[in-house]
Every structure is written in C-alpha cells, then in structure tokens.
Design goal:
single chain, alpha/beta, Rossmann fold, Alpha-Beta Plaits, seven-stranded parallel beta sheet, five-stranded parallel beta sheet, 14 helices, 16 strands, binds 3-phosphoglyceric acid
C-alpha cells in the first residue's frame, strides 16, 4: 500500500513531485488550518506543516499518523506531548532557513536605523523629508548582542562582522569563534548594547524572557529585533519600554499573529511609530524554502527506506535508565528472549537496547540500559546460560 503524506502548508512543486516519484501518495492542501487538520490528517501516515498548528485533537484522532515533519526549525506549533503519548515521531529541518532569518534580522537593523519604511511611506504620500531622515546613526562600530547563538545567531554574527559591529553573543554553552565575545550576564551587556537581536526557541525557559526587568537594563534608544518567537517577549513590557525608553523595534513575530496566510490583522503594536512588524516572513525566501523542502523530502524518504528518523525532536534525551547491562552472547534464536525473560521475572524495565553482531555472525553484543538493578540471583541465571559468553552490569549514576 502507498504511503500517504499530507502537506498542509505552502511547499514547492518540484519537491512534491520528488515524493510522488517515490510512489508516495501526496495530498497537497496549503489552505488547511489548525481546525481542519483533525479531519484531513485522519488517514495519513505523514503530515508536513510549516506554521500550521498541529494540536492534540489532530494527533489523537488519526489512526495512522506516524510522522510529523515541521518544514522549518521551530516545533512549538506541534503538540509534542500528544505526539509522545501516541509514539508519533516529530522531525524538523534545523539550520535550513537560518540564512534567510539572519538576512531579515540584518535588514531590520538597517531599516530601523535609516527608517526606510517611513522614508518610503512619506515618498508615496508625496512628502519629501530629507532633513528628518538624515538623522540615522549608522551601524559601523555599534555593539550588537546576539541572544541565542544557534544556527541563526551564527549567521547573524557573520553578517554583522562584515558591517564592522562589535559583537557579543549568549547561548547555553560558551561562545567561541568568529571574533564574537561571550557575555555571561544580561546586566553586563544590555546597558551597553546598541542593538539586541533575539534568536531563541520558544521553551519554558525563554517564555517572557524579555520582561520589564530586562527592558530596564537596555540602553535608551537601542534597537531590539525579534525574528524568533513572540513568546520570548512580554508584549506589555515591550510597549511600555518603547514609549518610555524610545526603543526602536523590529519584529517578525508578535502576539495574536493570524494563522491564515492572508486577511486582516490587528495589534497594539500598530499604534507605535518606532515598531516595524513584518509578516512572519523570516524563513520565506525561495532559497530557504527549497532547502527546507529538500530536507523534508530527505526525512520522509529516509524514514521509508531505512526506518531511521532524521532530526527526531521528540526522542528522549535522558531516559530513566540507571544501570547498563552488556551481554556478549552466541547469536542464536531465543538467546536474547531468555535473558529478557529473566529481567521480566524481576519486573525490570529495559529503557534502551542495542544488539550488535560481530563479523562472521556467530557472536553478538547486546547493551541494555535498565531502569533498576538486576539482582545477583538474576545474574547467576544469566551467567549459567550456555549461550552467554560474558556480561557486565554497572550503575550509570555512580561517579
Ligand atoms: C521556523 O521555525 O522555521 C520559522 O518560524 C518559519 O516559519 P514558516 O515556515 O511558517 O515561515
């Protein structure tokens, strides 16, 4: 039976064709929204989305759904907890649209410094104002703080270097390379940064990170760019800071962003002269969309051909394993089953398992990560198994 893939967002035609060429049945409906998906994804094996929300109802109501591919980087539009409960794989395409997002962030810095949108709007309205628009400061030598130094943050740094900026960055681990200096605390960098650009995922740690306290630390008149996720900024605090500290702000994401691809939009930010908002188009260059689509196709084909899930984001990083049990055994039917039987008798859960065969196929080595320790009686039974050559059983939490 043909595998069924539903693509519920805009996706380049040539990559749809590549899936069809691989004998995949493709349903392409870029107009679908969050509330259409439960019905539309009911009988598909794989669902591909960009920013369309995949909620718990969609995941729970499908009998067949096995893989959700986020054709982009952030997976906050997918209910990962619901996917975990049903064992639905979630993958993304990290790094493939980083350059596009970095280009927009740099574009916003220049646009805000030179007030390009205001310039253009006045010209179109028949107004000439060289005097007013000659007040830009310029970006050369300015101090830039990059908050989040993943694939996008790094691309911003490369481009900011070409502009001659004094670059600082902050990430989970220490920053090295590209002539970028690490800043460890916000209270050191925000008072001196002329430009702050955010490149963070939406997580419980980043939610509301830019709040009153952070805006208080920022330099008056500084530029703030957010092309990442709206959740990382407390919008009320931002509005206050724009009014009180004259911040200049460029946002590609904001509270209440419409899910539809076109239609009306309404936001408190529309009233603020110094805030430029784009239409969540950071990733929307043809180059980036082709790179993302190619990666999406690769993920799906690899899944079909080898069962391997590339960029599997809901794979447990840490399991509940506390012991490692390695058994070298003759590679015969039933040997592993007899070892697992012993563990089952003792109600020991195997959290992870890998069985690797020696060249020649006579002997194999099975590594199991166990939730609790095997008792000496269990180990005795396993040692006496004539098909077990050696074993080791060690605690993972020691040392
Ligand atoms: C991403 O996470 O990759 C970006 O936010 C892109 O979103 P989009 O695919 O809806 O443009």
């Amino acid at each position: 039976m043909k595998m069924k893939v539903l693509i519920a967002d805009k996706f380049p035609e040539q990559y749809i064709q590549r899936l069809k060429d691989a004998e995949i049945e493709v349903i392409y409906n870029p107009k679908l929204g969050e509330n259409d998906l439960p019905e539309a994804a009911k009988e598909v094996d794989c669902l591909v989305v960009r920013s369309t929300v995949v909620n718990a109802v969609t995941i729970e109501s499908s009998k067949t759904l096995n893989l959700i591919v986020r054709a982009g980087a952030g997976v906050n539009n997918i209910d990962i907890k619901a996917a975990n409960k049903k064992g639905v794989y979630v993958s993304n395409c990290p790094g493939k649209n980083s350059i596009a997002v970095a280009e927009l962030a740099i574009g916003m810095m220049i646009a805000l410094d030179r007030r390009i949108p205001h310039n253009v709007a006045d010209f179109k309205a028949g107004k000439w104002n060289k005097g007013e628009y000659s007040k830009a400061e310029g970006l050369f030598g300015k101090t830039l703080a990059i908050v989040g130094y993943g694939a996008i943050g790094k691309e911003v740094a490369k481009r900011a270097q070409a502009l001659g900026m004094n670059i600082y960055a902050k990430d989970i681990s220490r920053i090295e390379g590209y002539g970028v200096k690490d800043f460890s605390e916000f209270d050191q960098i925000l008072p001196i940064a002329d430009i702050v650009t955010l490149h963070l995922p939406a997580t419980s740690q980043t939610k509301g990170l830019f709040n009153d306290a952070m805006f208080k630390l920022m330099k008056p008149g500084a530029i703030l760019i957010n092309t990442s996720r709206q959740d990382v900024i407390d919008e009320e605090a931002l509005i206050k800071a724009v009014k009180e500290k004259n911040l200049k702000v460029g946002l590609d994401v904001f509270k209440g962003e419409p899910e539809e691809k076109s239609g009306p939009v309404s936001s408190k930010l529309q009233e603020l002269d110094n805030v430029y908002v784009t239409h969540h188009i950071g990733a929307s260059t043809e180059q980036a969309q082709n790179a993302v689509a190619e990666e999406t196709v690769n993920i799906i084909l690899q899944y079909i051909n080898s069962g391997v899930i590339a960029h599997w984001v809901n794979r447990a990083k840490i399991t509940d394993a506390h012991y490692q049990f390695v058994v070298k055994h003759y590679d015969k039917p039933g040997v592993l089953a007899s070892i697992l039987d012993v563990l089952r008798e003792g109600s020991i859960n195997v959290e992870e398992v890998e069985n690797i065969i020696f060249d020649g196929g006579l002997v194999a080595c099975c590594t199991m990560k166990l939730r609790s320790a095997a008792t000496s009686e269990m180990l005795e039974i396993i040692r006496n198994n004539p098909n077990v050559i050696t074993y080791s059983h060690v605690g993972l939490d020691e040392g």
